[in-house]
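A further point concerns the way the authors explain their paired sequence and structure data. An entry of this sort, consisting of the sequence and the corresponding C-alpha cells, reads as follows:
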Amino acid sequence: MNARFLLAAVALVVPSTVAAQTLDEIVARHLAARGGREALAAVRTLRMTGRATAGPGRDAIVRREIARPGRIRTEFVFQGTTGVYAWDGEAGWRVSPLDGRLEPEPLPAEDAAVAAEQADIDGPLVDWKAKGHAVDLVGSEALPVGPAHRLRVTLKSGAVRHVWVDAATGLFVRAESTRKLRGREVVLETVFGDYRETGGVAFARSIETGVRGRPRRLHIAVETVEVNVPVDDARFRMPR
C-alpha cells in the first residue's frame, strides 16, 4: 500500500478537525447564534428562575434578575431562608443566612467584581473591544459535546476567563475561571447546555458548575426565562 493511498484511507476513518476560523469569525458566529445584535439589544431586563441541586436533600430555588445598564440580583431560597447577592451598577451587597449573615452587607471586592461581570446580558464576547476586554483564540479542542474553539478573555478588570464556543452551534458550552474559595485559589468549571430561545435570544437552560478536581457539582435547571419584565430599581439597591 503506497503512502498516498494510506493517507486517503486514514482520512475516511479519522474525524475531520475544526475548520480554521479567525477570532472575528468565531465571535460573529456566536453573536448570530445568540439571536443577533438587534435581538440582544432589545432585551432590557431579564428574569430567570430555576432549581439548583447539589445532592440528595440539597435543592434550592434560584432567581436571577438583570437590568441594563449592568445591574443584577441573584436569590437562593433554601430550607426557608433566602440569600441575596446583588450589584447595583456601582457597588455589590449580600444577605447570606447560610454563612450567618442575616443583614445586608457589602460584597467582598472579588465577589462584587464577579457580580458586575454577570450583569452583562450580552456576555463578554459581544462588543468586547468597546468594553475594554481582550480576547485571544487559543485553539480548538474536542469536548464531550464535540469540537469547540477555546478563547481566552481578559476582562477590563484584568480577570481572565476561558470560554469554549461550540464549533457546530456557535454557543458557549464551557467556561473556566480562577476564584478564591475560603482564601484558596480554585478553578471553577461551568458547562452550559439545552439552549432555547426566549424573545429571539438563546439562553442555556442547563448549567452545571463545580471546582476542578472535586466530584461535587451544582446542577441548575432553568425553568422559566422572561425578557423585558418590569423590575423595580430598588431590587438592586442595598436596603438601609
Observations:
- Helices lie at 3-13, 23-34, 37-42, 109-118.
